[in-house]
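Narrative of activities, Objective 1.

The group set out to show that a structural description can be obtained from nothing but a protein's sequence at a throughput compatible with the screening campaign. Below is one input-output pair from the validation batch, recorded exactly as produced.
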Amino acid sequence: MGGTPTQPTYRLGGTFRDARMGDVAIEQLNLDGRYANRELVSALDLFRGGRRVVTANLALPMDLALVPVDERLRDAPLRGSIRTDSIELGIVETFTSGIRNATGQLITNVDVAGTWERPALTGRLAITNGAFDLPGAGIHLERVEARLGLVGDSVHIERLVASSRREDGQQ
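Output recorded for this entry:
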């Protein structure tokens, strides 16, 4: 930590090994973050089986001054990218309670742009050999194959195939 109360600078870095996030085992997670000039720049790398399976880089305009400010989230461009290489779909459970018991693979190639007020995501997501429960709907989806395109604030379903059954086992 350095700088002044109105223009602070921060540096954060670390590695987590053999950790858990919900039911997802984290072999190794590397984090690096810097804050200066009212921007937080961060990088995350997640490893499984000795290889990098998630890379995320984000530059977020925010004011983390140690004094009161009018707006913490600045009206300036968001920048970033999220890439995965066949990561376990179960990682999604870390971020939502709407999906449980997820299996399969997730491939992500997404760029982040826009502003806090109007974020814009572009890229693609794919699910292969997927299966998961949607507790809120009371259904289990299996044999999920999906390709989604992201453009700005829209999701384009390019392909979506799944079989379902209710939690009581009926189709």
